[in-house]
Amino acid sequence: VQRFKEKYLRRAFKNLPNEPHGLVKFIKENAWVERYAQFLVLKKLNKNKSWNKWRITEIPDDKKEEVAFHIWCQFLAVKGWNKLLKYANKKGIEIIADCPFYVDYNSADCYFNKEQFVLDQNYHPLIVSGCPPDDFSKKGQLWGTPVYNFEKMEANGFSFLINRLLFLAKRCNLLRLDHFRAFDTYYVIPAGDKKASRGQWLKGPGKMFFDRLYENNPTIKLIAEDLGFLFESVHELRDAYQLPGMRVMQFSIFEEALNDEHVVLYPGTHDNLTLYGWLKSLDKQRLNELKKKLGYPEDLYGALFNFIWNSKSLITIFPLQDLLRLDNRARINSPGTVGKPNWCFKLRDMAWQEKIKYGNR
User: Fold this and answer.
1) Which of the pair, 184 or 3, is modelled with greater confidence?
2) What is the mean pLDDT of residues 261-265?
3) Residue 27 and residue 207: Cα distance in Å, rounded?
4) Residue-level pLDDT at 353
């Protein structure tokens, strides 16, 4: 898809009669865009090597047009997205964006903001992100992204993190903070260690960060992704700002945890089985418990769907796969694995709309 579109984008850029209206203003209001474009060009000049191995660190004169091309592409992307958001809102549809807590090492974010991360004198990570062993992952998870230097961040008002959130907040109605718990406490592993179990918990920025964030945008609407093992202090941080948390039906239905109102409810997230696949995975005892809970319906899937849909939650979000009753072949992501079929699910037409028949609101 990218190769197909890029060919036409380059052709359009080459044939631009003059500077697009609004481009200069866009560049002034988005300081990141020029650095991002420079990073893409430098990365290609250095044969896509990690930035700490680059030999070329300055943009040659004959590549400045390439930088301009990438800036223009971002201008089009943001402009198009803003139009989409405005159109959706006119139709009564709100958009929720997702903000990852960490950024990748080999990124413009890290390259141009090295002092914001825990790196050694050669700019290699000293510690990396991850998650200790739990019920979801017996060996823990080694994410490997660089970790923020919160002492340095605090000195400049957490501007790097806050600017990330403010940029996204302008392009959505609600912003979900992935790995919310890390604002309270985050898990780090020595760089180079292959075992996630050999890490430790460190204290996050907590209320200092959120106080500064709300000073910059008092009306920002946030959702706290608060799944998994949490200290009580994580709940306290979430509740201090009255942020709705999350519930996943696959984890909660047998624990009677679906009665909370100030939550966003999912049958499953992108990291879980599809709802149909989850039903098929239940052992006989769990399946009988579910049937009993739902009144032994003829259509167990439809009854479960309506049970979730009619919950008391603030928001209920169904993945499209669950609306279409698709099995695990349509699963979006399997944590701990890389490559296909992760993040490859794609709809080829709009015929699916006729198949949706569940729910009564």
Assistant:
1) 184
2) 93
3) 32
4) 67
Cβ–Cβ < 8 Å for 294, 244: no
In sequence order, what are the beta bridge partners of 316? 265
Q: What is the Cα–Cα distance from 141 to 139, expressed in whole angstroms?
A: 7
E strand intervals along the chain: 96-99, 127-131, 141-146, 174-177, 185-190, 200-203, 222-224, 245-248, 263-266, 315-316
Average pLDDT over residues 129-138: 86
- Rounded CA-CA distance 31/166 in Å is 13
CA distance 67 to 49: 18
pLDDT for res 355: 64
Cβ burial of 46 (10 Å; 0-12, 13-18, 19+) is middle
Query: Buried b vs exposed e over 126-158: b needs ≥16 C-beta within 10 Å?
Result: ebbbbbbeeebbeebbbbebbbbbbeebeeeeb
What three-state secondary structure class fits 143? Answer: strand
| Residue 19: DSSP 8-state | P
Residue with tokens 């993190």: 161
Distance (Å, whole) CA 185 – CA 201? 6
Closest CA to 241 of 204, 269, 212: 212
CA 319/CA 311 separation, integer angstroms: 16
Structure tokens at 227: 């799944």
Q: How much is the pLDDT for 361?
A: 38
Specify the residue for token string 């002034």: 28
